[in-house]
């Protein structure tokens, strides 16, 4: 029996070794990054699953709903980066593919300068207007004192905006097709935060500000440490400097970045306003229920995103080198994988009630229709993701931007209408599914035309 186990283990190791070493250098690099990312992202997912029942027990469902709604509002401020992060990503891949590291450093320095200028200005504006804001009305709650909410908002906004600046080191790692290193930041932050929150939970009770401080400051400190490490070590040649800032590059970065900016705006509208809509039409307790179901069905999306993470930059590299054979093979493999993940989503839906009971207990009841809406959302996301990554990697965003402008305008009235209908909580996610579903045929057609080098007119913009 021992000999059989040894032989079986040896065979598995051999097959994994072949999988990791066969194919082009681009494919080998992507596979290794996917394996590393699975380990790191898995740690983040596990930490996230532990966070939710811990925070609900410590804060209660209404305070946790307040926290979720506030962080959703903060998410709106990501649009101030004007797509510069994604613009830098594509420009950096192109420069490094050509071996032009001087231009690469200039792009990095200019992006850091622009984003720092933008977000520090936003932060200053926030400090000026915050005394005049009524956060209890914004968050539709009376359970937490106004002064406490105001302080919490300042803390969360301050460190979120700083986090956005320090996050640029992650863009550089992803552009260099090393997303696993970028994925290292999140589990480190999560583990440290879990430890600190556990000690807070046994010494205090219902302290929303303390939770806000921990969950806001720790990720910034981890990113700051990573930024110092990488710019003093392996990415010394890209370390930003004042003399490398080229304001003339702003137009180039913003030209591509503004297209990604519109896409980001749509993402913010679809994925951060849901909590606000639920809070205003229903209540903060429903925000908690919605987000538990959302987190559950976010698992397959997060796992799939690990595979997708190196694809964007790899597509940019392959497209710049006109390696269409690799692009076609990769898209075919990703589509097959999408079917497998879809079957996993179906199984998650079937066992969702038991999973919720095991995860958060019987105190919170999640209707099946809410779970069904989340499963549909996850399915659309999975099947659409490969095409989105290819189009983003090639920078052909003309059609996508216009579809997103139209669907974003449609989302608000549709989400409000469906939430006020008999669907209630599930209506918000069904509205998101409708919006996402509209772009599916357009993205499939455009990607296939680009890969077959038959894209002309708007399909090639």
Task: Label this structure with key terms.
461 residues, 19 helices, 82% helix, globular
Task: Kindly describe this structure.
This protein is mainly α and 461 residues long. It has one domain. Helix content is 82%, strand content 0%. It has 19 helices and no strands. Helix 13 runs antiparallel to helix 14. The longest helix is centred in the middle third of the chain and has 37 residues. The radius of gyration is 23 Å and the shape is globular. The N and C termini lie far apart (61 Å).
How is the secondary structure organized here?
Blueprint: H1 2-21, H2 25-59, H3 61-75, H4 84-97, H5 101-129, H6 135-138, H7 146-166, H8 168-175, H9 179-183, H10 185-203, H11 208-232, H12 249-281, H13 284-320, H14 324-350, H15 352-360, H16 368-394, H17 398-420, H18 425-438, H19 440-451
Helix pairs in contact: 2-3, 2-10, 2-13, 3-12, 3-13, 4-5, 4-8, 4-12, 4-13, 5-7, 7-11, 10-11, 12-13, 12-17, 12-18, 13-14, 13-16, 14-16, 16-18, 16-19, 17-18
């Amino acid at each position: 029996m021992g000999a059989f186990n040894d032989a079986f283990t040896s065979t598995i190791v051999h097959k994994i070794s072949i999988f990791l070493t066969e194919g082009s250098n681009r494919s080998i690099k992507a596979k290794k990054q996917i394996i590393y990312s699975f380990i790191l992202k898995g740690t983040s997912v596990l930490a996230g699953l532990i966070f939710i029942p811990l925070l609900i027990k410590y804060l209660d469902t209404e305070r946790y709903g307040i926290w979720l709604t506030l962080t959703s509002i903060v998410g709106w401020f990501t649009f101030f980066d004007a797509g510069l992060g994604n613009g830098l990503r594509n420009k950096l891949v192109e420069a490094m593919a050509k071996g032009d590291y001087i231009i690469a450093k200039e792009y990095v320095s200019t992006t850091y300068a622009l984003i720092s200028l933008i977000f520090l200005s936003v932060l200053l504006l926030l400090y000026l207007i915050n005394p005049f804001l009524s956060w209890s009305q914004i968050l539709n709650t009376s359970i937490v004192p106004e002064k406490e909410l105001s302080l919490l908002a300042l803390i969360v906004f301050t460190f979120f905006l700083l986090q956005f600046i320090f996050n640029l080191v992650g863009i550089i790692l992803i552009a260099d097709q090393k997303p696993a290193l970028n994925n290292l930041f999140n589990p480190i932050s999560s583990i440290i935060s879990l430890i600190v929150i556990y000690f807070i939970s046994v010494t205090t009770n219902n302290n929303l500000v303390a939770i806000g401080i921990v969950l806001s400051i720790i990720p910034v400190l981890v990113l700051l440490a990573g930024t110092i490490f990488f710019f003093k070590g392996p990415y010394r040649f890209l370390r930003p400097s004042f003399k490398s800032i080229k304001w003339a590059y702003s137009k180039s970065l913003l030209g591509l970045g503004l297209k990604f900016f519109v896409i980001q705006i749509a993402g913010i509208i679809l994925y951060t306003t849901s909590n606000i809509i639920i809070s205003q039409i229903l209540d903060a307790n429903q925000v908690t229920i919605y987000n538990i179901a959302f987190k559950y069905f976010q698992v397959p999306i997060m796992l799939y995103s690990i595979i997708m993470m190196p694809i964007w930059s790899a597509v940019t590299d392959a497209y710049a080198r006109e390696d269409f054979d690799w692009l076609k093979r990769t898209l075919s493999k990703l589509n097959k994988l999408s079917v497998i993940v879809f079957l996993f989503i179906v199984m998650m839906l079937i066992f969702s009630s038991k999973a919720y009971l095991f995860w958060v207990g019987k105190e919170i009841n999640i209707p099946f229709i809410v779970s069904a809406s989340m499963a549909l959302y996850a399915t659309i996301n999975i099947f659409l993701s490969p095409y989105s990554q290819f189009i983003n990697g090639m920078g052909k965003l003309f059609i996508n931007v216009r579809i997103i402008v139209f669907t974003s305008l449609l989302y608000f009235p549709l989400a409000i209408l469906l939430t006020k209908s008999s669907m209630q909580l599930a209506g918000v996610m069904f509205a998101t599914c409708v919006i996402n579903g509209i772009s599916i045929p357009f993205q499939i057609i455009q990607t296939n035309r680009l890969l077959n080098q038959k894209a002309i007119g708007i399909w090639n913009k």
